[in-house]
Amino acid sequence: MAKGRVDIDVDRCKGCELCREACPQNVLALADDLNGKGYRPVILLDPLHDCTGCALCAVVCPDGCITVYRDVPQKTPKKEPVLNGKSLSLAV
Amino acid sequence: MVMLAPNQQQTEKLIYERPHSLEEVYTHYCPGCTHGIAHRLIAEVIDELDIQERTILVAPVGCAVFAYNYFAFDSAEAAHGRAPAMATGIKRVNPDSIVFTYQGDGDLASIGIAEAIHAASRGEQLTVIFINNAIYGMTGGQMAPTSLLGQVTTSSPTGRDAQATGQPMRIAEMMAGLPGVVYSVRRSLHDARHVIQAKQAIKTAFEAQMQGLGFSIVELLSSCPTNWGMSPADAVHWVRDEMIPVYPLGDYKVAEALQNKRGRN
Lengths: 92, 265
Description:
The complex is a heterodimer of chains A (92) and B (265). With 92 residues, chain A is α+β, with helices and mostly antiparallel strands. Chain A is built from two helices and six strands. The radius of gyration of chain A is 21 Å and the shape is elongated. The two termini of chain A are 40 Å apart. Chain B has helices at residues 35-49, 83-93, 105-111, 113-121, 162-165, 171-176, 192-210, 225-228, 232-246; strands at residues 12-16, 55-59, 74-77, 98-104, 127-132, 181-188, 215-221, 250-254. The mean pLDDT of chain B is 94. Chain A binds chain B through residues 4-5, 11-12, 14-18, 21-22, 37, 39, 53, 55-56, 58-72, 74-75, and chain B through 9-19, 22, 26-27, 29-37, 40, 191-192, 195-196, 225, 231-233, 236.
């Protein structure tokens, strides 16, 4: 399954928790600290990297605080055949 | 975003970001108020349609009175309920502009019902985003024409009584009966699926105006956690459980030219 992460603007978050309600993976939590407006903002608490980047939290966020990223699957680079430190590639 | 060297692969891609038509400001709305969701959907639609340069908002009186501070396009402020009349004038002198009003239920369904109905009846080329949260939010939670029967508000402390104050007013159905209206639908903002459907409806409403078809209105069922006296999560559940049975979601009028658009139930 795709993996992702969210970036939450904690200064603008009002801690309404609608995103926590929407999150299917339960990776959002309320921070212990208060932000500048006196709210406990929502933070990503995802030690097992369960976030899939589905963006449902961002879709329901009334304050537009959430930016969502999804991991791009990494392609492993092709290995060039090598013999005694010299390339065997036919390309000139 | 991390800058990548030319031979380095991108490790993640951007899936969702705040729309550019929304100013980078802190809104005055209460925590969990779905006005913020409605604002963001409108901004996303305007970004997607690429009409930011020619869009004009006519802001209402009500909780959304400062909406002009939150959108990154032109706007005007109307007297209470008069947004459709003001928008009519703006649209008629600037026919190339895209004009929409953003009105609550106290603004549109009560004091401004005459302006709304007559603008719709004339078939003005306007889009109306109607926020129905069944209460007067800004003034402290009084009963609105859209309040549910039995709903306790500061001006109906024993619950709304049909004998004394009538029945909840169904605007989307009422507007659908007018010949000048080409698009009249009701959507809800209580969960992610319905928010996505609401966005499609807002987009179709703007497209109706861009095609010059006539008056389009999207009614959005919204929550008011503060005046309902609920947590934001309980408030969206109240929309789902109590409001939707009284205000059924659906398409009440969709002109033929818009029939193939997505975002219908």
